[in-house]
């Protein structure tokens, strides 16, 4: 009877906070070994990871009405709609369209093809800071023969598709919109800081040029259509209206052709970063050491529970 009471008291002490604290103090060596072991493994892994650099740019959306189209739409909106001429809030529409294009498959595929970025996006694995050159994965791309040699499974092909490149590029691309100012921050992360900055500059330029070309094409179609209406209309009043509409379309086209920053004005241009953004090796080691300590606690509790169970079984 007395032995049973002592065992109950001992078991109660083991479950108390003081009992747990004493247990961990007695097994401090296990905690240290687990924590340091996992931290060392994380250190070895983190050192082997390549540095990633982030180039950033800040853009301001341009939302004007392109030379008075909005004002004209207030007076002649009904006739413009009947003629099939869009005269709404084109600035805001262009900004919304640009935000959708930024991550679209067609736009990114065109950007990759135009700048010949398929190889660095899909095959690069590091950057040599001394020679300022990319290190390509030899299992994916043969530099000597300039051809892809990767292993693949159907429906994939040996040469990566633009769909694959689109997915990889999205992992490098970050787009953020400031809720109050509506400013847009775009960032590209890559092994080479110079290439990241250069890609980002070209990315913004192509985005502006793409929207510009869409508006120019639309203005050309509108002008051509209005010319036909003027030629076929027998009412002098309608001819004057159509002429005013055509004049505004010509102004819109002219502004599109001469304006450099068409949809987004660059507030803070992209430059090559000097400090890496990833990996955060110190944070990785600290978290790994913490997780190793937790593993040590689990091991200690498991051993203690097993010993208590065996002791009760013997009694």
Task: Give the SSE map.
Layout: H1 2-15, H2 17-26, H3 28-48, E1 53-61, H4 69-82, H5 90-101, H6 105-115, H7 118-123, E2 124-128, E3 133-136, E4 141-142, E5 147-148, H8 162-172, E6 173-177, E7 184-190, H9 193-232, H10 236-258, E8 264-268, H11 281-314
Antiparallel strand pairs: 1-7, 1-8, 2-3, 4-5, 6-7
Helix pairs in contact: 3-11, 4-10, 6-8, 9-10
Residue fraction in strands: 5-15%
Topology-level CATH name of the domain at 53-114 and 167-268: Bacterial polysaccharide co-polymerase-like
Described by the principal axes of the CA atoms, the overall outline is elongated
What percent of the residues sit in helical stretches (DSSP H or I)? 55-70%
Could you explain the architecture of this structure?
With 315 residues, this protein is an alpha+beta fold. It is 62% helix and 12% strand. The chain has helices spanning 2-15, 17-26, 28-48, 69-82, 90-101, 105-115, 118-123, 162-172, 193-232, 236-258, 281-314, and strands at residues 53-61, 124-128, 133-136, 141-142, 147-148, 173-177, 184-190, 264-268. The strands form 3 sheets. It has a 4-stranded antiparallel sheet with strand order 6-7-1-8. Strands 2-3 form a two-stranded antiparallel sheet. It is elongated. The termini are close together. Residues 1-14 and 66-83 have low confidence and may be disordered.
Short précis:
The protein has 315 residues and is α+β, with helices and mostly antiparallel strands.
């Amino acid at each position: 009877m007395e032995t049973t009471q002592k065992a109950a008291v001992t078991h109660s002490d083991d479950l108390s906070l003081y009992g747990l604290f004493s247990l961990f103090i007695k097994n401090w060596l296990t905690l240290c070994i687990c924590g340091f072991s996992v931290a060392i493994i994380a250190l070895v892994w983190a050192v082997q990871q390549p540095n990633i650099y982030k180039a950033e740019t800040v853009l301001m959306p341009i939302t004007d009405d392109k030379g008075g189209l909005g004002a004209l739409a207030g007076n002649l909106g009904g006739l413009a709609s009947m003629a099939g001429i869009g005269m709404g809030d084109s600035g805001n529409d262009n900004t919304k369209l640009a935000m959708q294009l930024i991550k679209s498959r067609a736009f990114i595929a065109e950007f990759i093809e135009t700048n010949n970025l398929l190889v660095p996006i899909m095959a690069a694995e590091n950057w040599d800071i001394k020679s300022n050159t990319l290190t390509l994965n030899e299992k994916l791309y043969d530099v000597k023969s300039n051809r892809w040699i990767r292993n693949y499974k159907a429906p994939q092909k040996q040469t990566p598709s633009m769909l694959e490149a689109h997915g990889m590029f999205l992992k490098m691309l970050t787009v953020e919109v400031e809720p109050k100012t509506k400013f847009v921050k775009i960032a590209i992360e890559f092994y080479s800081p110079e290439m990241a900055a250069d890609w980002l500059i070209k990315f913004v330029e192509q985005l502006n040029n793409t929207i510009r070309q869409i508006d120019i094409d639309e203005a050309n179609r509108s002008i051509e259509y209005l010319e036909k209406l003027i030629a076929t209309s027998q009412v002098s009043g309608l001819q004057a209206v159509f002429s005013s509409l055509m004049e505004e379309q010509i102004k819109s086209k002219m502004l599109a052709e001469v304006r450099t920053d068409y949809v987004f004005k660059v507030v803070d241009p992209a430059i090559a970063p000097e400090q890496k953004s990833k990996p955060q090796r110190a944070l990785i080691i600290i978290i790994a050491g913490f997780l190793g300590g937790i593993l040590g606690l689990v091991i200690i509790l498991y051993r203690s529970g097993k010993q208590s169970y065996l002791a009760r079984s013997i009694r």
